[in-house]
Write a structure and sequence with these properties.
alpha/beta; Endonuclease, Chain A; 434 Repressor (Amino-terminal Domain); 2 domains; two-stranded parallel sheet; 10 helices; elongated
Length: about 280
C-alpha cells in the first residue's frame, strides 16, 4: 500500500495527474457542488469524456429536495435552483450524477485502484484549509467502493445490467442469471425447443435455469454462445465504459437493420477484478 498526504495547495496538481492517467472509471463522492469550482474543473472532466472514461458522481441530496418549490423558503429555492443548474452542467460533460442522503465522506477513486480521501470537497472547494490522503491499493479501494455503495450509479446499472446479470452485486445469483438469460432468449425470438436443438441443453434444464436454478459454467457458456452472445471477462474498472460502448454500438446497429436476428451482439456477462 502506497500513501501520501496533501494539503489544499498541493492536492490539485497531483489530482489532475491522476485524472490524466485514468483509463476507464472515475468515482467521486463530493457532498457539495459550487459553480465556481465546476468552472475550474470543466476542462478536466471534458477530457475524461473525450477518452470515454465513465465518471460517476455522488452528491448530497438536500432534505428539502422533494418538497414543492412553493413550500420552500427563498433560501432553499435558490439553493435548489443552483444545484439543478450544477447537475445539468455536469451532465453536459457526460458525467453520471447521483443524489445520496446523509453523506459526508469525500472520495475520488480512479480505476478502482487509486483513492483520494480527506476533508476537501472536490466539486466545491475554493480556498479553505484542507488535507487529503492518496492511497494506491486496489483492495482498499474495493473496500471503500463496496462499503459506501459507490457502484450504485443508476445510469451505469441501467446499461451494465443489459450485459452483466446482477450488477452491481459482485456475483449474480442464479435467479438474476436466469432472468437475464430468459430476456435475451426472448429478444432473440428463440423458443426453448430451438435453443435445445442448437445448444444440446434440454428444455427442462433451460426452463429450470430461467426459473432460478444453478447450472454448470459449461452449460451457461453453451446457452450464451447459441443465443448469439459472447462471453467475456474484463476488469471491473473498465466495465462501465465498455458496457456503454457496446450499448451505443447495438443501438446504431438496430437503427440500420430492420431485423434483430441479423444483429451480431457482443455481450459481457462475466466481471473480473482488475489485476
Amino acid at each position: 500500500m502506497t500513501t501520501k498526504t496533501y494539503t489544499e495547495s498541493t492536492f490539485w496538481s497531483a489530482f489532475r495527474s491522476d485524472l490524466e492517467k485514468t483509463k476507464g472509471h472515475l468515482i467521486i463522492q463530493s457532498p457539495f457542488v459550487s459553480p465556481q469550482r465546476l468552472k475550474l474543473v470543466a476542462n478536466d472532466f471534458k477530457s475524461l469524456a473525450a477518452r470515454n472514461v465513465t465518471v460517476c458522481i455522488f452528491i448530497q441530496r438536500p432534505k428539502y429536495w422533494d418538497t414543492p418549490s412553493e413550500k420552500l423558503s427563498t433560501k432553499n429555492q435558490y439553493e435548489k435552483h443552483e444545484l439543478l443548474a450544477n447537475i445539468e452542467e455536469m451532465k453536459k460533460w457526460n458525467c453520471h450524477v447521483n443524489l445520496k442522503s446523509k453523506i459526508h465522506s469525500k472520495f475520488a477513486i480512479h480505476d478502482h485502484r487509486v483513492m483520494w480521501e480527506g476533508s476537501l470537497n472536490k466539486l466545491s472547494h475554493l480556498n479553505g484549509l484542507e488535507h487529503m490522503r492518496r492511497w494506491e491499493d486496489p483492495f482498499e479501494a474495493k473496500q471503500i467502493i463496496v462499503s459506501h455503495e459507490l457502484l450504485n450509479c443508476q445510469a451505469c446499472i441501467k446499461v451494465i445490467s443489459l450485459f452483466s446479470p446482477g450488477y452491481p452485486n459482485p456475483e449474480p445469483d442464479a435467479k438474476q442469471f436466469g432472468e437475464w438469460l430468459k430476456r435475451n432468449r426472448i429478444e432473440a425470438e428463440m423458443t426453448h425447443r430451438q435453443l435445445e436443438s442448437l445448444s444440446g441443453v434440454s428444455r427442462r434444464t433451460i426452463c429450470n435455469i430461467e426459473q432460478g436454478s444453478d447450472c454448470f459454467l459449461n452449460t451457461a457458456a453453451s446457452l450464451i454462445e447459441h443465443l448469439n452472445l459472447e462471453l467475456c471477462m474484463i476488469p471491473n474498472y473498465l466495465l462501465p465504459s465498455i458496457a456503454q460502448m457496446l450499448h451505443n454500438e447495438m443501438a446504431a446497429l438496430r437503427a440500420k437493420r430492420n431485423s434483430r436476428k441479423s444483429t451480431k451482439r457482443r455481450m459481457t456477462v462475466v466481471r473480473a477484478d482488475a489485476p
